[in-house]
Amino acid sequence: MSEIHYVLGDATRPQVPGPKIIAHICNDYGGWGRGFVVALSKRNRSPEELYRIIAASRPLVLGEVMLSDFGPDDPDVLVANMVAQHGNSTPQNPVAVDYKALRACLDQLGHDAADMNASVHMPRIGCGLGGGKWSVVEEAILAILVDVYGLQVYVYDLPTPLAVVAHHEMDEADSEFQHALHCLADRCACDVTPVTLVDAPEEARS
User: Fold this and answer.
1) For the whole model, what pTM was predicted?
2) How many structural domains compose the chain?
């Protein structure tokens, strides 16, 4: 059954068999260098290079998706740069993620992933530098990637001590604390040490 799987681990190192797409949100002004993209570029610079080439050649359009390879070490992995954020979250612009653009990106991502029979992997997109609410993003992922396209989606949390406690001890109803935790993890994403997934489905541990 298609669903969202929540796992502890590194979203830049998806550990399930078959084709995979790592999805993340980019801004629309050509900035790359904070949040999850730092971890991506440390693994391979192809997604960054594609983003910068396109951003230098024309204005970026909210709702567009750029599919990039992830280097020869990961031939079955693509990266989806989803342009769904207008600037960064600031006191004057607290919610920079554009939910309408995100839904358009997810629809394109779903089409591409279904054509490839790929699973989709991501951090909690839109909730760090984008300033969005995970409940809104999660609803869009379920409605589009899961319900429309029937995809397996894996959402990763960094394996900090607090995240481990959250995954094992917190009631799902306590979503506000979890949201704050994931925003903190997204803002601090830099060096990410690969770990064995915790609470992942059996097929994700192979």
Assistant:
1) 0.80
2) 1
